[in-house]
Design goal:
The structure holds 2 protein chains of 2 kinds.
Chain A (H helix, E strand, L loop, with lengths): L1 E10 L2 E11 L4 E5 L6 H8 L7 E6 L2 E2 L4 H7 E4 L11 H11 L4 H15 L14 H13 L5 E5 L7 H14 L4 E6 L2 H7 L2 E6 L2 E6 L1 H7 L3 E9 L3 H5 L1 H4 L4 E8 L2 E9 L5 H10 L3 E8 L3 H9 L3 H4 L1
Parallel strand pairs in A: 3-8, 3-9, 6-7, 7-8
Antiparallel strand pairs in A: 1-2, 1-4, 4-5, 9-10, 11-13, 11-14, 12-13
Helix pairs in contact in A: 4-5, 5-6
Chain B lengths: L1 H16 L1 H25 L5 H29 L1 H6 L5 H22 L1 H10 L5 H28 L3 H17 L9 H10 L1 H9 L5 H27 L1
Helix pairs in contact in B: 1-5, 2-3, 2-5, 3-5, 3-7, 3-8, 5-7, 5-11, 7-8, 7-10, 7-11, 10-11
Classes of the chains: A alpha/beta, B mainly alpha.
Chain lengths: ~325, ~240
Amino acid sequence: MIRVENLVKDYGSLRAVNGINFQVNDGEILGFLGPNGAGKSTTLKMMTTYLAPTSGNVQVDDLNILEHSLEIRRLIGYLPELNPLYVEMNVYDYLQFVASAREITGQAFKKRLGEVVDMCGLRGVIHKYISELSKGYRQRVGLAQAIFHDPKILILDEPSSGLDPNQIVEIRELIKSLGKKKTLIMSSHILQEIELTADRMVIINKGEIVADGTTEELMRSFKGKTVLTLEVKNAHEADVNGIAEAVRTVSVAKIINQNGTLTAQLEYPNTIDPRSEIFDYAVSRRWTILEMSRYRVSLEDVFRTLTVEGGMQNG
Amino acid sequence: MDNIKLIYRKEMDAFFNSPVAYIVLLVFALITSWFFTNTFFLSNQSDLRSLFDVVPLVYLFFVPAITMGLIAREKNSGTMEFLATLPMKDSQIVIGKFLAAVSLIGVGLLFTGMHFITLLFVGTAVDIGAIISGYFGLLLVGSVYTAVGVLGSSITNNQITAFILSFLLIFIFFIMEKILVFVPQFMAAALQFISVDYHLNNISRGVIDSRNLIYFGSLIMFFLIMSTRVLEIRKWR
């Protein structure tokens, strides 16, 4: 189990991470989500002992990052952001270097190399220089490096950034298969990425955690609104505004008048459905309804609202 | 120990898999040969003094050229993050890289061995012992400068900056004894004692004194420890 406790990181006068707390249970796939510059990478860098926290701590089982830095590094496989590789090496030499650093040599290396190469689909490129590889293959090499010592914990910082859609799907499948037996933490600024792979997500913005839970939990806890677009003919603006009084749960967000056609955006809580009352009201006023469409708040909107500046007020 | 060996091997591979090492070595051999042959036949002495005098000067450019990329490049390309999250100590990374650069300087010195062979053919009563200890002294000075270069490379993530920084730091050591005449009397003795030339001259004469060895050893240690500290600072910045 990994426990992040009151973690703070200052870069000079800039507070990149501001006292965050969360837990990752064994075997869990945790999505670490946030817009660019939210403090995701900084947090992961502290968890992998690359950076020391300004205050706070990260506890991995009984070890903590300050006192047991080397022991923790042995437990963790880490794919840093932008996947830095020694491009002047070939894949075999690079993996051999990684393996030696992890004290896997001789027969054990050969055996593990075969497994890793198969897992990451590197069979065809093992003797190629990394500089010759495409971005997708480089990402596989980065993953191979991270999993070579079969770590208990896998930390991937934006594993799919910069890849094309096909490569993203491939890498996602690969990550999913890797995550089956491991504690996996992956960061992303793309929601779908996390939604599809992670058991749980932690959303971070401006160095603080703004949400923590499973997809369903987040959707449920987020008391969003449904937006109903109503397009009507033969109506007056004042009349449309009257909906709010006739149907108490509804509020009118805005009305656009276009050549006698009124488009109104109505809002009401997710928990109720006043559409038939709105319809009845329209009929009683002898409006012609051209369109009535509902827009439910999605997880994407939850994410947007949580991470866009000033979004909380709207939510 | 294994980690030091691992880093050492990686750096050696990197040196010899790129053309830079070959070019730098070639330039080193050419420049030292030029200076050597210019004065060797004029002075008409059966020793390598003219070579040993010029090598520290060539080091001034040669060593920073070798060391500039050692750490700065890893920082610049982001591989430092990969390296520093492997289960190895920063000090092992520094020592491994230092030893690799020293080996490259050793190779450079080997190239100058051709002048030694020339000397054996044309000279008379060659003092082989003095020449061996002279080479040993050059390697020690090269090691000190390399340790300085490692520090220069660890401070920045730009290779050019690292080169200039290392050059300046090495220049301080290089110039120290040469400016003794301008220094007030009471400081001269102290300055002479911390200058590289003074200790190198002792060794070049064929006298390998533990004081000189301790001097070189402690300078190397000092700069390597400083480099390690500089690497560790990144964690806290």
